[in-house]
Specification:
heterodimer, A: mainly alpha, 12 helices, about 80% helix, globular, B: alpha/beta, Rossmann fold, Alpha-Beta Plaits, 2 domains, six-stranded mixed sheet, four-stranded antiparallel sheet
Chain lengths: ~230, ~325
């Protein structure tokens, strides 16, 4: 499993994809930090990270699009599938490698706090809360991306499909408040990745949200494993 | 070493395999032969655990592939139809990666060095796979299958799209591997299997239609009494002289002409070696014999014949 993890990480940096992702991630987060936090003259980063979720909805799919789609296109998945290695380990290794890149980018983005903190004292709890929330949301996004990538052998399809799913999930929580009918509202809140995010921005550690994000990740990784099982049995 | 029993594979309503069964003993080189779309790759993919079967069992070294996939997969080295190569990796990196995912316990450096030596890719080990020629890529694919020294090696059309020299090299390589491994080699090139394999299993439309020793198939077909001869002499007279020669049951000009020589297809009575009388007869008439070519039936013909029989059988069964 570690071998695949290593290979995936390596391939992010032997192809431009890894650099492009990190670069664009940092550029966009710098830009968004500028217009959300710096312009309004505060040192509160919560609104910045709220907007960042949307950016991640577009960036993360680019990170995950080739995980399985490319293997299938190049027919290299046959090597992985005929190796003495359970499928879930293969899926997990791919997930972890993409997530590592995401976490690295997010961590590097924290350098923006240095100039920011010279303007005033940042609220540590809220900042950490936001970062933890981003880590969790990113985890779900990566899992979704991996899942969609396993469905196709076309990287572009994988990326667009992931973007659509993520945006629907994020949008679900926004329309949530507009709907009067309780069952629909309840149903929408199940897939509302965004709604559970809010507590973290107040610096409150919401344990139920933690469970929610983790279970959602597991669900998508499980579905990915099922995709491979189904293809074998189909 | 390999036991395949009653393998059935359905893709939706379409059946790719309809009850395939055969065994491969330890140390055998078995050729797996069939036209495109006969179910060769499907069988091999099931055997290696890439696909599952709809029903039937596959055992490798006594281990059921479906029940204990990881244990069974350890025994198999597999070169799929398209070698599974990462084009952004160097050859040595790639083999190291394969070494790791196969969880080998052998001495890594020595083992990989040996494999690169047998497959003759040592000189390209620091080059990107994406930049290699097709022949080298194929050899890297073979090297990949050898990592971990699995007792069973499966090649799915290993010589497709290679040039004649590379084909010969790879066949020699496979023959050498056969001395120490159990090998299954799928191909639709019959002479390839003829030259490499001890046994041939022929598959058509998802069913095994023949499973025999290569020699016995060639011998059945090879007891030839047909020749193409080339004679320098007047065509019509040579033809009538041939007809009247004792032992010849059939003679006919092929229509080919080379300078003042003409070609004829002749057939002698069974058990008669026509070559000596033919030579003396032509020498007497002063028509030099320019060529004599035995028309042994090769595996191609055998294959076509078996397939024809098979089709007739299924037609009469339907009727």
């Amino acid at each position: 499993m570690f071998a695949i993890y290593k290979k995936e990480l390596r391939s992010y940096f032997t192809t431009p994809l890894g650099y492009v992702f990190c670069g664009v991630f940092l550029a966009i987060s710098g830009f968004l930090l500028g217009i959300t936090t710096l312009y309004s003259g505060t040192v509160d980063v919560s609104s910045f990270y709220q907007v960042m979720i949307f950016a991640c909805g577009i960036l993360v799919p680019i990170l995950t699009m080739k995980t399985f789609a490319e293997e299938r296109r190049q027919k290299t998945e046959q090597l992985l599938m005929t190796a003495p290695l359970p499928i879930f380990k293969m899926v997990l290794a791919k997930f972890l490698s993409s997530y590592t890149i995401f976490v690295l980018s997010l961590a590097t983005g924290c350098v923006y706090f240095l100039p920011l903190s010279t303007y005033g004292t940042m609220n540590a709890a809220r900042t950490v809360g936001c970062l933890v929330a981003m880590l969790l949301v990113g985890m779900v996004f990566v899992a979704i991306g991996i899942f969609v990538s396993s469905l196709t052998d076309n990287t572009v399809t994988a990326a667009v499909g992931t973007i659509v799913i993520i945006l629907v999930m994020v949008a679900a929580s926004m329309f949530n408040g507009l709907i009067d009918f309780y069952p629909i509202r309840q149903a929408l809140s199940w897939i509302s990745v965004y709604g559970r995010y809010t507590y973290f921005t107040y610096g409150i550690f919401d344990f139920s949200a933690l469970v929610y994000y983790f279970s959602l990740t597991v669900v998508f990784l499980f579905l990915t494993v099922r995709v491979f099982d189904r293809r074998r049995w189909a | 070493m390999i036991e395949i029993q009653n393998l059935v594979k359905l893709y939706g309503n379409k059946s790719a395999l309809e009850g395939v069964s055969f065994n491969v003993g330890e140390g055998e080189i078995v050729g797996f032969l069939g036209p495109n779309g006969a179910g060769k790759s499907t069988t091999l993919n099931i055997l290696t655990g890439y696909l599952s079967s709809s029903s039937g069992t596959v055992k490798v070294g006594g281990i059921d592939v479906f029940e204990y996939p990881d244990e069974a997969k350890k025994l198999i080295g597999f070169l799929p139809e398209q070698p599974p190569l990462y084009h952004d990796m160097k050859v040595s990196e790639y083999l190291n990666f394969v070494y790791e995912i196969k969880r080998c316990k052998l001495n890594r450096k020595k083992h990989l060095e040996e494999i690169m030596q047998t497959t003759k890719i040592l000189d390209v080990k620091d080059r990107l796979i994406g930049n290699l020629s097709k022949g080298y890529r194929q050899r890297v694919g073979i090297a990949q299958a050898l990592v971990g020294n699995p007792p069973v090696i499966i090649f799915d059309e290993p010589t497709v799209a290679l040039d004649p020299k590379q084909i010969i090299e790879i066949r020699n390589l496979i023959r050498n591997l056969g001395k120490t491994h159990t090998v299954i080699l799928s191909s639709h090139i019959l002479s390839e299997i003829q030259s490499v394999c001890d046994r041939v299993v022929i598959i058509n439309e998802g069913r095994i239609i023949a499973d025999e020793k290569t020699e016995s198939i060639t011998r059945v077909a090879g007891d030839t009494n047909e020749y193409i001869i080339k004679v320098a002499g007047p065509q019509r007279e040579v033809q009538s002289a041939l007809r009247s020669l004792r032992g010849i049951v059939f003679s006919e000009p092929t229509g080919e002409r080379d300078g003042d020589s003409y070609c004829f297809r002749i057939k002698s009575e069974t058990g008669v070696d026509i070559r000596k009388p033919l030579f003396y007869m032509l020498a007497e008439k002063n028509w030099p014999l320019m060529g004599l070519e035995p028309q042994g039936m090769n595996l191609e013909d055998v294959f076509v014949r078996i397939m024809d029989n098979d089709m007739k059988k299924s037609k009469s069964a339907k009727a």
